[in-house]
## 1
Amino acid sequence: MWADLHTHTTASDGKCSPSDNIIRAKKKGLQAIAITDHDTVAGLDEAMKAGTEMDIVVVPGIEISSIFKGQDIHVLGYYVDKDDPCFLNKLKELRKTRDKRNEMMVKKLNELGLSIGMDEVYARKKDNEGNIGRPHIAEVLMEKGIVSSMEEAFRQYLGKEGRAYVNPPRISPFEAIDLIKEARGVPVVAHPGLYDDDLLIEEMIQYGLKGIEVFHPDHSDDAVNRYSKLASTYGLIMTGGSDFHGERNGEIFHGDIGLKYVNIEIVNQLKQLAENA
């Protein structure tokens, strides 16, 4: 009884529709899947309808973008109230910052002598209500032959060490935890192995984090062991997922649905925490 608790759709920077993610999960033999789009819950209604039709448990989630010391820190929220008007208004503000960042990155790419326009980036958006992220920019870079893969796009230009990396002011990871809790959700730090800042993770735990994404395609065995122990020490839920974004130019970013998963009992634990919040 397995669950993939980290997937993206066309509501943000994924390539598959929410329904397609559910269909893919069913084909992979999963019993549950979380939809965790960046700074939006726009895909949840479609996903939950498809889940009912296909007998798949759909966990309503989100991945909040925050910043700490110039670095992206992502916080997953599970069982958030997708209809809470205050929550929705705050998400709208986060997406405005995301749009500003995209424009800043494209401008920096232009300054590096790379011909790429925002119109080309927005043309890659599959859902009119979806937001744009770095994978859309990477897709344009690949199609123009500037890079050969998503990995190269992030390593050379869009990742934290990349030449076009920028990060305008955003909420802190602590504010992200508050935002998720205000929406009656369960905050879990996403892929902590990518941050190289375990002191921050411990600070987030002390602040009110309820779980750690231990199992992720970009986590080494050492990272899995380290965060498993940290979660056990503090009595936190250990989650995991593929971070599926779909296929771009023949390449699946992070991992395919079901590549990383947890026992469905973790879903029950998350739901219970949310209900008792």
## 2
Amino acid sequence: NIIVILADDLGYAEPGCQGGKDIPTPNIDSLAANGVRFTSGTVSCPVCSPTRAGLLTGRYQQRFGHEFNPGPAVSASDIFGLPLGEKTMADRLKALGYATGIVGKWHLGYNEAYTPTRRGFDEFFGFLGGAHPYFQYLNPDRKGGEGSIMRGTEPVEEKEYLTYAFAREAAAFIERHKGHPFFLYLSFNAVHAPLQATGKRLEKFNGIKDTTRRTFAAMLDAMDEGIGKVLKKLRELNLEENTLIVFLSDNGGPTLSTSSRNDPLNGFKGQVYEGGVRVPFIVQWKAKLPMGAVYDKPVISLDILPTAIAAAGALTTPQMNLDGVNLLPYLTGEAAGAPHEHLFWRFGGQSAVRSGNWKLARFETGDPMLFDLAEDIGEKNDHAAKNPDKLKKLLAAYNEWNAQNIAPLWVRKAEKRRRRKKTKKG
């Protein structure tokens, strides 16, 4: 079985296994104690939807123009969803005989053709947009609309605190499909804004004086408890040993708005500094992987899909055009070296490339900066002037990768309109 648990806007430093001190996360920590924790686990974008597009396809989202969060639900255009030509992890695992389900946040398209049950998932319980109130009575779309809670394609009335509801539905999915292989994508919206928590859980953190941090702590605590419910259900059904579980965040924490901490990293959500793209990232598979291991070489969320396919006993093919790699042989010691020679990021005017411990980062029209992450994880010392050869090599690698990508569809359409107008005037 395969479970991918995705937290939303959780900073690198929050879980206890990552050094967090003020908010206990025993269930997340148990995954690290029973599996492999990545110290250089990254995602392919510093914001929500593009990361999800890359995670579910195993491909850099710039390959198919999904570089930014989608706009509002006003069109059936590709602008507003994961392009229909892209196969998802659910598509690929369903073809291998897996029951497939998503619980939680989708954020990859609002219109019918783009919704989860049309993208390989047999079951869906959650919402289609990028954020959602945690209490249904605060939701203006609670009786329909893009912000409603959906079961399949129908809006439903949900009375529980949303994090509790998602944990409940995830455990129920496991119970329903205990007799055959399943893929569960548990996509929490915690700890994304709005910051909302139940009164009892807030009382638990009365010792935290800052009200923003107290609410954040209560939200993270609720998500950790929800993960515990999922693990408990697996144990009750004797499924935990042979279930591949991946836990990660979709991007770094937006520290200024929610207090989510990324230290000792520089930057936060929306930036290609490490604080925007390096995240808590853990893999547990008790039957196959070492317990309590730490893996330091750089990996990326694109690796989850090929790893899942390998865990399912199948092979990836060149025709899939995947950018991720199967991590299993690296984690078991069967493969030496690093999974990737380079990792790349492009987010509008920001770009970055990492090779080993060296990272090049560029913002808008500024000069490229060069960091040695082995000695400077906080990206404070720019080596660009001192190491021009390394800078040149990384720039060349980035330019070669970038030449294979396309602009977002709305950018391409705008450019077509601009050319048409120019032609008419001419």
